[in-house]
Design a protein that fits this description.
alpha+beta; 4 helices
């Protein structure tokens, strides 16, 4: 009786050992498969690095600066080139013509400043009365080339001690997008 019990336990141990052996073989096969994949990827990386090095060498021979310092400065140069392109395409004649269409008779312009970085214009001037300034803002907003008109500052000032002529000094910002002529 103890022999059959021992014999049954031996079968279980044999099955367990066989299972562990099969599992070990599977792990060994799987590790070799993964090792082959790793070797394949490492070879692909080496080839990619060789191609990059050849490309960098060719660019350096052609006179391109690929230094880290230049790569860090490159975004600023691209932004500058874009602003320069906008600046060169800007037509003062067209802008002044559009502005003239929007400026009422009782408004006097004293300054015009362009900010190509954010495509905005700063205007400074004076108006005879607050209603004239309000009319100017409304005409700018109604004009198809001017957008986002913001009256940033305005105050009343008196000219002359005897005449006491009052007028409104103002500054404003606005976006300018001329309409295409095509």
């Amino acid at each position: 009786m103890w022999w059959t019990h021992f014999h049954g336990g031996q079968d279980r141990l044999t099955c367990l050992a066989g299972g562990l052996l099969l599992w070990s073989v599977w792990i060994w096969v799987e590790s070799h498969r993964l090792h082959d994949q790793i070797a394949h990827y490492e070879l692909a990386i080496q080839k990619g690095q060789q191609v990059n090095q050849q490309y960098i060498h060719r660019l350096q021979q052609e006179g391109f600066d690929l230094s880290q310092t230049y790569q860090q400065a490159l975004p600023k140069e691209v932004a500058f080139a874009k602003r320069l392109q906008v600046h060169q395409a800007f037509s003062w004649t067209r802008f002044l013509s559009d502005l003239e269409m929007a400026v009422p008779a009782r408004i006097s312009m004293t300054s015009v400043g362009l900010n190509f970085k954010n495509n905005s214009i700063a205007l400074g001037g004076s108006a005879r009365a607050l209603q004239d300034l309000q009319g100017f803002v409304e005409k700018l907003e109604a004009h198809p080339a001017f957008h986002h008109v913001v009256l940033s500052k305005h105050f009343e000032k008196t000219r002359g001690k005897k005449s006491k002529v009052r007028y409104i000094i103002f500054t404003m910002t606005l976006a300018y997008h001329p309409q295409s002529t095509s």
